[in-house]
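step 3/5: co-fold with nicotinamide-adenine-dinucleotide
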Amino acid sequence: MEYQVKNADGRLGILMPGLGAVATTLIAGVESIKKGFSQPVGSLTQMGRIRLGKRTDERFPLIKEFVPLTDLENIVFGGWDVYADNVFEAATTAKVLEPMLLHAVRPELERIVPMKAVFDKAYARNLDGNHVKEGADKMELAEALMEDIRQFKETNGCDRLVMVWCGSTEIYIEESGVHQSIEAFEAGLRSNDPNIAPSMIYAYAAIKSGVPFANGAPNLTVDIPAIVELAKEHGIAISGKDFKTGQTLMKTILAPGLHARALGVKGWFSSNILGNRDGYVLDAPENFKTKEVSKLSVLDEIFRPESNPELYGDMYHKVRINYYPPHGDNKESWDNIDIFGWLGYQMQIKINFLCRDSILAAPLVLDLALFTDLAQRAGMSGIQEWLSFYYKSPQTAEGLAPEHDIFKQLMKLQNTLRHMMGEDLITHLGLDYYQDLVEAL
Ligand SMILES: NC(=O)c1ccc[n+]([C@@H]2O[C@H](COP(=O)([O-])OP(=O)(O)OC[C@H]3O[C@@H](n4cnc5c(N)ncnc54)[C@H](O)[C@@H]3O)[C@@H](O)[C@H]2O)c1
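step 4/5: write C-alpha cells
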C-alpha cells in the first residue's frame, strides 16, 4: 500500500484533556525551545535520526527532515481541566520546572486557560476541582466538547487538530455492553450509562469532530469496540495506552536483553514512590488497579512464559506504587530482579531509577501529537499500532498480542515512516552486502 502524505501546511492545534504536570511541562518546554533556551531532548521527532538505504549509503537524516511534520512554530496548545488555573499557574503548582524557566515563558503560558472539563468524581475521587461542565446527559456533554473543539479551531486559525489525553488515570473498569457498538455507546451517552468514562466522552467528541486521539493514561478510553468502530467509520487515527516512561521504560529495555540471551528470571519486584497529583490519584486503590494492569502486562508479553516454561514459568512479578509527597514529580523506583544463568546459578540485578516523571513524559506527548497528525495526513485511520513505542500497554487489533520490546517497537515505527515515504524497509539481514562483495570479485 502506498501512502500519499499531505504536507504539514498551516497550524496544528494540540488539545489536551488534563492540563496538569505532563501537559504543562510539554507546553512550557516547547515555548522555551522556540525561544532557543532549551533543547527537545527525549523527542524522537525533534532529535532522532533514521537510517535510509544501505549502510554504505551513509544516509541518516533527522526524522523531522525525512517526514513532513508540523514545525514547533506552528503548534497551538489548548485543553480542559477540572481546575481553572491557567498553564503558568498549573505548571507552578506542578513544580516540575524551575521558576526561572517558567517566568521566561510566562506570557505564553498565561494565555492558555483550560476549558471547563467533562468530569465525574466517581472516576477520580481524589480530585475536587469544580471547573466542570454541566449537561442533562453525557450526549449533551459530548456536544459541548464538540463546540469547544470547533471554537478552538476557529479562534486559533488551526488547519488541523489532535487530541492527547493527559488527564488523570480513571478507575478500573472492564469492557461492558455499552462499549460494544456505536449504537449501544450513543444510547449510553443519552441514558447517562455509568460505564461511559469521561475520557470516552472526549474521545467520542474528538472523533466525531474529525480529530485523531492518543491516550496517555491506562484508561480504556479508545480501547473499546464502539470507539474503534467510530474511528474507522470517520477515517480517524487512534492509539493508546499509558505513556511508557520511568520503570516500564527500563523494563522494556532490559527484559528483551535477558530474553535474547536465554537467561532465566525467577522474580521481578518493582516498587515506586512519587508525590505528584498523579501519585495522589493513584493512591486510590480503584485508580491504582488501572495502572497496575497496564504495568503488569509488559513482562509476560516479552518473556512468553508459556513457550519458555524452564526460563520464565515460575516468574513472580509484582508492581507497587506508593504516594510519597516529599518526592513530588521526582519519582523513585526500585527493581529487584532475580535471574539465573548456566546450570541454574542465581544472580541479581538492582535498578534504582531517580527519574522525573513529567520530564520523561512531555516529549512523548509531543511525538505522539506530531506522529498522530502525520498518520492522519497519510490517510492511516483506526488503531496506530506503529506508535506502540510510546505506550506501556499498546492498543492492537482484536486478537493480536501487543509488542512490548522497545527495540522491535522502534523498528516498526521506523519502517512505518520508511514505508510512508516510499523508502526500502530495513530488515537488518545484511546478506546483500556480502553478495555484492562476492560478485565484485
Ligand atoms: N508522567 C508520567 O511519566 C506518566 C506516565 C504514564 C502515564 N501518565 C499519565 O498521564 C496522565 C497525566 O499525568 P500528570 O502527571 O500530568 O498528572 P496530573 O495529576 O498532574 O494532571 C492530570 C490533570 O488532569 C486533570 N483531569 C482529571 N480528570 C479530568 C477530566 N475528566 N477532564 C479534564 N481534566 C481532567 C486533573 O485535574 C489534573 O490537572 C495521568 O493519567 C498519568 O497516569 C503519566
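step 5/5: annotate
The pocket of nicotinamide-adenine-dinucleotide is lined by residues 17-22, 80-83, 94, 117-119, 124, 127, 129, 166-169, 198, 216-217, 242-243, 245-246, 276-278, 281, 357-358, 360-361 (CB under 6 Å).
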